[in-house]
Predict the structure.
Amino acid sequence: MSAEAVIFGTEGAARILGQHFGLSGKITPLTAERDENFRVQSAQGQFVLKVFGPGTPEDEADMLCAVLRHLQDRAPSLPVPRLVAASPATPFVRLDGGRLAVLYTFLPGTPLMEVRRSIAQAQACGALAAQLGHALRDFSHPAMHRRLIWDLRRLPDLAAIAADLRRVPFAEFVLPFIDRFASDVAPALDALPRQFVHNDLNARNVIVAIQNHDRIAGIIDFGDSVHTARVCDIAVGMIGQMADRDSAGAMIEAFLSGYECIAPLAAGEREILPQLVAARVVQNVVMTAFYQQETGESGHFSGFDETYFGWRVAFVQDLIRRHT
């Protein structure tokens, strides 16, 4: 796992766009965990150029392209980015130095994290998440079984990462939780329905309409998509609805009700959800601490401090108590 690195910058992005896609225009860097992403405003439209992080295997770049093509074919009405292939034969491009790049359409709107939340909005998020999951249920690709630290099934892998941290935030909760998850939750999770899922429906990746924040205008960033237990995707989406302590419970229930209007959960999925919601918070705490230790406070993980996580940790601790 490599920490965030910026190599190309806007000048390099401009060269890639001109050489491989015949585009020019205003280029704005976007936040990213591992990759370099750029918003492109050109005469031909608005796009996102993704330059994959160093060492990204070609099959992962190919999988992203395959996902976008699959959704365009199977669910053309879903508001997701559309792939702009470099050529009919090559959906992604190989750059000097071995890095890879893809181009896809930019979805206009406002990130969910920047607007006031509402029950109707959370229900709409849940319904769209279920529709997306339905569209992806038969997607297949050789890279979809990759071992990804952001897959909640891999939560026990965080123990080794936490051991290398100078300090583990909320260690009195986080470390025993990882151990209990490995012994008690993971075996039950392995028995639940699996499929390929988005896996990152956080408040950055859900886009709402500018004029109507209750209307979901898009879902972006398929970079952490993986084949896993379906309920993991639901738990991640629920966490994305939590904007403050007082409304968190109502918002995650609204998301779940919207989801189940489209795709009802199995009994085992519903029972395990509180543990998975807590697992996502633990995952965020540990991985944020890892990246901040490696790269400092700037970048994709800036602003996520103990104040941000404090009430979320308290909320999931209470959630677990109420469901055990």
DSSP finds nine helices and ten strands in the chain. The beta strands are 25-30, 36-42, 45-51, 93-94, 100-105, 110-111, 194-197, 206-208, 216-219, 226-229. The mean pLDDT is 94. The radius of gyration is 19 Å.
